[in-house]
Amino acid sequence: MTQDKARLEEVILKTCDLPVLPATAHRVLNVMADPNVSIDEIKRVISSDPGLTAKILKIANSAFYGGYRNIQNLTQAILRLGLNSVRNIMMATSIKNVYKRFGLTEKLLWEQSIGSALASNIIAGYVKSVDSEDAFIGGLLHDIGNVVLNNEFPQRFSEVMEMVYNDSVPYSTAVKEVFGFTHRDVGALVVRKWGFPETLEVLIRYFDDHEHLSADPYLLRFATVIATADRICQKFGVGWKQPMDDVVDFDTVADVLEIEKETLDEVCERTQKVFDHEIKLYLEESTRP
Questions:
Q1: Which of 74, 157, 164, 272 fits a 20 to 30 Å CA distance from 53?
Q2: Rounded to 10 degrees, what is the CA torsion of 216, 33, 89, 83?
Q3: Phi/psi of residue 180, each to 5°?
Q4: 18 in Cβ contact with 193 (< 8 Å)
């Protein structure tokens, strides 16, 4: 580690109260790491959190997932949603509890995170080498540094938001100008503290450095999936003031991910449907403790 990098980490660790991973999220990761996990074990984890239980049942009964029969218990909900969707819902609900407050700024940050997670999950389904569930977690956490900085320094972070939303300055540039380091630096430390794989830490730290990521084809594709998801969120106004056209570079994305441009059109259509029918279920305040 270089002296400059060591000093940067020291500054961040001293100035930011890095959060701990919520207990439910820890249990989710431990339980889901077992490929032979039983529904009873998953039920036990979910049942320990009343808010999460209510969220799982609500989403299972939503129009997006719903069938002709109303779901009344966790076993039915897990079977209807599938283990991967349950894991994603559990992680998203847990991560939302990292937020110390929930005003307009936090709502925008959360919309961006959950929108990116959902879109990344869909995009990865078309990419051979990027796992859809890893993509969901990557989309959910790649901007977690913004959440931490907003938690600890809300007044200074409001300057970042003004630059991003009023002057169209990229987050990394705005955060660097206000804080002296980027939210990627903070986010990388957070996921390291939370015990996520080193791959996710590296992905977040170098998310905006395509030259660095190009040395690892997998990381480049992983980052491109999430970056494309972010652009699709902008396209449909998820976490932004209004929809923005022509923000997705279809040619570059298709080349890096080795998929057809027509496929990206299909991805956008599918993602828009998910945003229309599912994203609001994650945004509801009933998930707050």
A1: 272
A2: 110
A3: 95, -10
A4: yes
Sequence letter at residue 25: A
Q: Write out pLDDT tens, residues 113-166.
A: 999 999 999 999 998 788 888 999 999 999 999 999 999 999 999 999 999 999
pLDDT value, residue 38? 85
Tell me how far the alpha carbon of residue 152 is from its chain's centroid: 20
Which band of pLDDT confidence, cut at 50, 70 and 90, is reported for residue 1?
A: low
C-beta neighbour count of 121 within 10 angstroms? 26
Tokens of 239: 């976490």
Question: Buried (b) or exposed (e) across 244-258, using 16+ Cβ within 10 A?
Answer: eeeebebeebbebbe
pLDDT given at position 287 = 38
DSSP state of 19: P
Task: Note the pTM of the prediction, 2 decimals.
Answer: 0.87
The CA distance from 226 to 123, in Å, is 8
Residue 146: left if φ>0, alpha if ψ -120 to 50, beta else—which one? Answer: alpha
Identify the structural domains of the chain with CATH numbers, from first to last: 20-97 (no CATH), 100-287 (1.10.3210.10)
Closest CA to 264 of 244, 248, 276, 279: 248
Give Cβ neighbours of residue 233 (< 8 Å, ≥ 6 apart).
111, 112, 115, 116, 119, 239, 240
CA 134, chain centre distance (Å) = 10
pLDDT digits (tens, 9 = 90+) for 71-108: 888 888 888 888 888 888 888 888 888 888 889 999 99
State the residue for tokens 């990229």: 170
